[in-house]
Design goal:
By secondary structure, the protein is α/β, with parallel strands linked by helices. The chain folds into 2 domains: 18-237 and 336-421, Alpha/Beta hydrolase fold, catalytic domain (Rossmann fold), CATH 3.40.50.1820; 241-330, 434 Repressor (Amino-terminal Domain) (Orthogonal Bundle), CATH 1.10.260.130. The protein has 15 helices and 13 strands.
Length: 425
């Protein structure tokens, strides 16, 4: 309760997260098993908004916890949600499965997409408000007969001492691959255990989808993968960091730094030593909040000032441009392995947050390895660069194009790669 000056007691606005603790607290130790094995599952409510009265999903939701591996290859638990469509699959072959890697929602455990889908909108203290901004894609896909498994990501949502391994290439890919494996094990679904699978993701989710395609041949060779759709993927984090400075989404730097420490705890002391007191608050608070609060608290701030009034006491270019941080960031880049199946990459040419170069370089790298790649370039002109319009809007503008590409892969339609017509470096 909050006591106000006139003595009237009013309840503090907050969301009750305690109801999630039992499910999202992994057993310790983990039960014996292999990557992708289900640990637990339960039915879950699916709503677009808290009352559940403004429309309904044409699907049944099941919350899942499953075994996967972290950045160091160690067994961990991860969570997500499986969506079983009410409608039949109208295309060819058995019902397809889309393994969906969400974009960034913040890295507090309350921000996990699988938690948001039974709330519609999450609100706790201050501006800790968030909603499932990708639900329009999910709702459309299940209405068209696709089964979907949404992977929260390693460390995201689970009630553990650490936190999400945000933007870590290895665990992002294994977490998505194992989510697909777990969905195939659920009893009572309409999935064929050997049925087709495709990956989908935007920004950090695009990195996860690309990593899953890259790691599939060695990590999950039994999966029948037909393709991966990547929307402005975080293919090179080093390119993103200078663009984020002073932008609406500068809080993403806090997510990245927390992700490095959560994946590689041995880097903690080094990274903390480069932060000012404001920077310490920035990084620590970033680990507890969701996207809207990140924008409210940190939007349009600068990372560095010579008088140390920014977040870093060294120039970020120096920190991120030298080892060990430089090597850690480079290890998160996509493009070093040939993906399994065809890939579709969509990106805006004037993206002022996650630059187009990241996507075009990735397409060239994969093409050089003999992959089947189509790069779609959105030409929406630059607008309000520091608020990320050219990052988010093209995702929705080109959403139907991405969905059609995935549909064609499940229906066996020939691909239209454009490796020969990619922009020059």
């Amino acid at each position: 309760m909050l006591v106000v000056p006139n003595g009237i007691h009013v309840p503090t606005a907050s969301a009750d997260e305690t109801k999630y603790l039992e499910f999202y607290s992994p057993p310790d130790p983990l039960p014996a098993g292999k990557p992708g094995d289900l640990i637990r599952s339960e039915p879950m409510r699916l709503v677009y908004e808290p009352s559940g009265q403004l429309g309904s999903w044409v699907a049944t939701g099941t919350r899942i916890m499953y075994r996967t591996t972290n950045a160091k290859g160690e067994p961990v638990a991860a969570t997500g949600v499986y969506l079983e469509p009410d409608n039949p699959w109208p295309g060819k072959g058995p019902r397809p499965l889309i393994a969906y890697a969400p974009g960034p929602y913040g890295i507090g455990e309350q921000c996990a997409p699988s938690r948001l889908m039974d709330q519609g909108i999450h609100f706790s203290q201050g501006f800790d408000l968030t909603f499932n901004y990708e639900e329009t894609f999910l709702a459309t896909m299940v209405a068209r007969g696709f089964a979907i498994v949404v992977a929260d990501g390693v460390g995201m949502g689970t009630h553990i001492p650490g936190g999400p391994e945000f933007a870590n290439r290895l665990s992002a890919g294994t977490g998505l691959l194992d989510a697909a494996r777990a969905a195939m094990q659920l009893p009572g679904t309409s999935l064929d255990p050997h049925g087709p699978v495709a990956f989908w993701g935007w920004l950090s989710g695009g990195q996860a989808a690309g990593s899953a395609a890259e790691q599939a041949a060695t990590y999950a060779p039994e999966l029948n993968i037909v393709g991966a759709a990547l929307n402005t993927p975080l293919a090179n984090i080093s390119l993103l960091l200078p663009y984020s400075d002073g932008s609406l989404l500068v809080g993403a730097v806090g997510y990245v730094l927390n992700g490095i420490v959560d994946a590689y705890p041995e880097t903690k002391d080094l990274l903390l030593s480069t932060l000012t007191p404001r920077g310490l608050h920035f990084v620590q608070w970033s680990s507890y909040i969701c996207l809207v609060q990140s924008v409210a608290d940190f939007g349009f701030r600068h990372l560095y000032f010579p008088d140390n009034t920014g977040y870093f006491n060294v120039e970020p270019a120096t920190l991120f441009g030298n080892d060990p941080v430089k090597s850690l960031l480079a290890a998160q880049n996509l493009g070093s392995l040939k993906p399994t199946g065809p890939v579709y990459i969509s990106a805006n040419r004037f993206d002022a947050f996650n630059p187009y170069q990241a996507s075009s370089d990735l397409a060239r790298d994969w093409c050089a390895k003999g992959a089947d790649v189509e790069l779609w370039t959105n030409e929406e002109p630059p607008f309000a660069n520091k608020v990320g319009i050219n990052t988010l809007l093209p995702y929705f503008v080109d959403g139907e194009r991405s969905m059609q590409w995935v549909t064609d892969r499940f229906n066996g339609v020939p691909t239209t790669p454009n490796c020969g017509g990619l922009p020059t470096a």
